[in-house]
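Design request, tokens follow.
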């Protein structure tokens, strides 16, 4: 049995290494695609990107802010897989009775079933729960793909303020709550931290002080987390999962905010009759920001630390039976990662906004910002 467990762990680690290499390779392809081909349209179209396969299946074909900040599994695996299933079954065009909102509701039910498995003591059952949560994530990609296809929207984009956007966000939140509550019940039910060396040990009762050793009874020491909940309550499963939930909530709010503001800045035609900037000059400035190393650093950071990525890390910890180790990280994830990332992103957005919105007549201002001409 131990040999089988060791084989499964080695296999999982091998797959993780393969996926990591795949993600790095796709990031490099996306980088060169943005650097070498147009992101915003040009009048002559001489630098248009040519995809050997349909752009619905090619995750680097249509470059958007959301795609560049979407976590690796969703961007490079689940989203193309949702597009492929839609292409094969023609869900968007033929299954008119199946709405994106109904798909969103369905992945909440899958999350509830997966959460039930995550609470089990059996590692196999918990891994089944992880697989179900990945099915939930795929359905989350499918509802977005179907909605965009029916609206003729290309690429990953958020239709902020729409009913579908609100329903999808609500269903994502319910799925996150289901997972965090399930992890809490698992930790409370299996609250002996064996890796820290804390086991249930026999101790003598007070009666043993006045009687012989043979007449004494034994009791079990309280579990490690039970001791923590009385002496250090902020490290109990309840407080730890509240911290995890707080971190996930703030991450979701911040990530969606920067998708919205950067999407509005870099993907919209902000020129009108009263504007002093030429449309082609606007496109050029947006492309300069898209290609700048600073924007790539911010986008990659959100790709690694966004809401869906943090969910993936928790699921990976469950799958590898390392949930206690992950929960311990919850106390410093917020100050170590999220708050510095929000600060840097805000500074970068202000800089990018000033650069893109500056009048084309003030070309001398270009040199004062961190976006050199491409």
């Amino acid at each position: 049995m131990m040999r089988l467990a060791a084989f499964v762990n080695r296999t999982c680690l091998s797959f993780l290494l393969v996926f990591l290499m795949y993600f790095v390779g796709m990031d490099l392809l996306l980088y060169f695609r943005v650097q070498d081909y147009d992101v915003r349209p040009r009048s002559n179209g001489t630098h248009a990107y040519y995809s050997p396969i349909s752009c619905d299946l090619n995750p680097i074909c249509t470059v958007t802010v959301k795609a560049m900040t979407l976590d690796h599994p969703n961007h490079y695996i689940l989203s193309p897989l949702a597009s492929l299933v839609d292409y094969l079954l023609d869900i968007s065009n033929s299954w008119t009775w199946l709405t994106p909102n109904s798909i969103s509701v369905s992945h909440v039910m899958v999350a509830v079933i997966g959460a039930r498995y995550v609470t089990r003591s059996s590692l196999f059952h918990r891994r089944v729960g992880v697989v179900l949560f990945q099915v939930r994530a795929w359905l989350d990609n499918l509802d977005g793909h179907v909605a965009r296809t029916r609206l003729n929207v290309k690429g990953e984009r958020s239709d902020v303020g729409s009913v579908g956007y609100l329903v999808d966000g609500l269903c994502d939140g319910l799925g996150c709550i289901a997972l965090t509550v399930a992890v809490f019940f698992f930790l409370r039910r299996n609250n002996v931290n064996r890796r820290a060396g804390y086991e249930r040990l026999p101790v003598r009762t007070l009666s043993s002080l006045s009687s012989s050793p043979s007449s004494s009874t034994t009791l079990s020491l309280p579990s490690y987390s039970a001791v923590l909940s009385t002496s250090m309550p902020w490290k109990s499963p309840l407080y730890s999962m509240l911290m995890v939930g707080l971190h996930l909530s703030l991450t979701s709010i911040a990530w969606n905010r920067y998708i919205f503001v950067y999407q509005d800045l870099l993907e919209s035609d902000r020129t009108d009759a009263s504007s002093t900037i030429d449309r082609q000059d606007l496109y050029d400035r947006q492309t300069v920001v898209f290609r700048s190393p600073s924007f790539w650093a911010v986008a990659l950071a959100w790709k690694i630390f966004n809401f869906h990525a943090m969910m993936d890390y928790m699921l990976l910890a469950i799958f590898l039976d390392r949930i206690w180790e992950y929960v311990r990280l919850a106390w410093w994830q917020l100050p170590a990662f999220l708050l510095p990332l929000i600060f840097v992103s805000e500074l970068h957005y202000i800089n990018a906004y000033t650069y893109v919105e500056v009048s084309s007549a003030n070309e001398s201002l270009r040199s004062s910002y961190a976006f050199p001409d491409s």
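Comment from the thread starter after seeing the answer: thanks! The chain has 13 helices and two strands.
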